[in-house]
Amino acid sequence: MMKKTMAVIMAAVFMAASLTGCNTGNLAGTDTTGQAPDKKIIRVSESFALQTLNPHLDYQGWYTSIYGVTETLFYMDDQSTLTPLLAESAKADGTLWTITLKEHTSFSNGDPVTPDMVIRNLKAAGEINTRFADFKDYTYAVVNQKTFTIDTKKVYPMLLNDLASPELAITDLDHSGDMKSELVATGPFVVSSFEPGGTIEVARNEQYWNGRAKLDGAVFYYMPEAGTSMMAMQNGELDAYTSVTSDAAEQYRKEPEKYKLTTIPATRLQFYILNENRQNEAVRKAINLTVDAKTIEGYLNGTVSETVGPFSPTAPYGKVTKAKPDVTAAKALLEADGYTLNSDGYYEKDGKVLSIKLAYYAARSLDTLAALMQEQLKEAGIMAVLTCEEDPDGTYIATGDFDIGLFCMIADKAGDPYYFISCTLKDGAPYNCGGFQNEQVQSEILKLETEADTKERARLADQIIQTAIDENAFGYVALFNKITVTRNGVSGVAENNPFDFYFLNADTDMD
């Protein structure tokens, strides 16, 4: 433990030296703290080491978006609502989408954003990013100087949500080289210095199409250790960062005169699957009445927020309900089902103790969640036997060998409910491995797959998830929080947006 502590301290000392030395030297007028006295330069830490500036590759676009360098045709606002950005409008006629760009959009070199360049970007992303491979096969056509069409060849209402994904950022492919170390894009900032695997500096895009950025620039330092970011923040060497740990958050809360801490539910979900092939309705309902998500939220110390369904309650497709925890009601259900409480405090029937196999894997705090659920179930007289697996997809998810199967995944990938629903509730889906079957739900999923109206999509999603809750097929526990700390006087770092790929923007400011 002592060696680890010393390693963190030495890393912080080395980082502090780099902050006050050459790393900020490219920003004119920096003083001994790394801050430019005559310029607004925000200093931020990131735990991911960017190796290339190509936003189309893997998840690199998340970070060029965080840096305020790249933009997409659409974006997700703080309420998880799809909103036009570079695009002015879009409409669908069957498989044919017509998209019109805003009149004044341009790249940082002053060149206009054209339909032809947008099409080339979408195809380029499809060629190198398997998650968007369909984009290389779509049929495109330029209509006029600001309008183009995409034929998806089959009805695909989630297209615009895809176009809000940061991997589909629009860049000037003619002037960005291979995009490994240089990038011409449309965002309010431009890359001024890039060290692969290290520090990245950005400066104001003086030709930004959507108004002048309030900051002169920013420096993003690579700090993989959470403790290093905390020390740097406390030493006055950072102005903001996200992914704040619960321990660090507790410290920042003690000094409200220095720091502002913003905690909101994000999009990564902790949930469990209830196996209908092994436990009847009474037992599954008793489990759901026993698991207390609010208490679990407290034990996980601010890193998660309890949830009713898989999506944020602020999203239009997050309007579902579930019964409040009630251990007394859970016991009554079991007793009505023929169970009696034995001398050890566990329910049994026909001489057999009600023993539940709770399978989990250790990442994403699921080990802690499993232990907490075990204790809660014990209070209701249910024995939970914990089984930890390294590879859930290759073990209990694949085999169905569980009574309760814990899992964690991003539920809201791009402001649309279909991805999570299709992965967990559709017949044959990988995480519909607990025997859930409902013909009405399958019919509604088919409608959701092709429904273009956003209000109707939200209604269908709410109805589908509500059925899963009512039939005690799943238990939705908590959404991981997006925790952002800023020095007082810093504002507008997308701290209220649940998506992790937003941070720096034209409205970001500091005193």
Overview of the molecule:
- InterPro entries: Peptide/Ni-bd, SBP_5, SBP_5_dom.
- It comes from Lacrimispora xylanolytica.
- The chain has 511 residues and is α+β, with helices and mostly antiparallel strands.
- It has 2 domains: 280 residues, D-Maltodextrin-Binding Protein, domain 2, CATH 3.40.190.10; 215 residues, Dipeptide-binding Protein, Domain 3 (Dipeptide-binding Protein, domain 3, Roll).
- It is built from 14 helices and 22 strands.
- Strands 11, 12, 13, 17, 18, 19 and 20 form a 7-stranded mixed β-sheet that branches. A 4-stranded mixed β-sheet has the order 1-10-9-8, with no helix packed on it. A 4-stranded antiparallel β-sheet has the order 4-5-7-6, covered by helices on one side.
- Strand 15 and strand 16 form a beta hairpin.
- The protein is globular, with a radius of gyration of 25 Å.
- The N terminus is likely disordered.
What form results from the Cα inertia axes?
Answer: globular
The CATH architecture assignment of the largest domain turns out to be 3-Layer(aba) Sandwich
The radius of gyration over CA amounts to: 25 Å
Q: Would you tell me which CATH topology of the largest domain applies?
A: D-Maltodextrin-Binding Protein, domain 2
The residue-averaged pLDDT reads 91
CATH class of the largest domain: Alpha Beta
Classify the beta-strand content into a percent band: 15-25%
Which percent bin holds the helix content? 25-40%
Number of H- or I-type helical stretches = 14
Q: Could you give me the name of the CATH homologous superfamily of the largest domain? A: Periplasmic binding protein-like II
Catalogue the unreliable spans.
1-34
Q: What structural class is derived from the secondary structure elements?
A: alpha+beta
Would you report the number of β strands?
22
- Rounded to the nearest angstrom, the distance between the terminal CA atoms is 39 Å
Number of domains: 2
> In this structure, how is the largest beta sheet organized?
7 strands, mixed
